[in-house]
Amino acid sequence: MNKKIIALAVSSLASGVAVAQSNVTMYGVVDTMYVYSQGDAGIGGGKNKFSGLAGGGGTAGNRLGFKGEEALGNGLKAVFTLEYGLNIDNNSGVGTSGLNARQQFVGLAGNWGTVALGRQYAPAFDATANNDALEATDLGIQSSLSVYSGSTITPNSPARFNNAITYTSPNWGGFTAKAIYGFGESRLGDTWSDNVNSVWDNGKLGLGLNYNNGPLNVDLLYQSRLQVEVPNFVPGGTAVKAPGGGSSINEWYAGANYDFKVVKIYGSYQALDNNNSIVGPDVGFGSGIESSNIWTVGVSAPLGNGVFGLSYGRLSLDRLNNTSGNSWGWGAMYQYNLSKRTALYGAYSYFDNSRNSVPVQAQVAGDGEGIGARGENNYAVGAGIRHSF
Question: pTM to 2 decimals?
Answer without folding.
Answer: 0.85
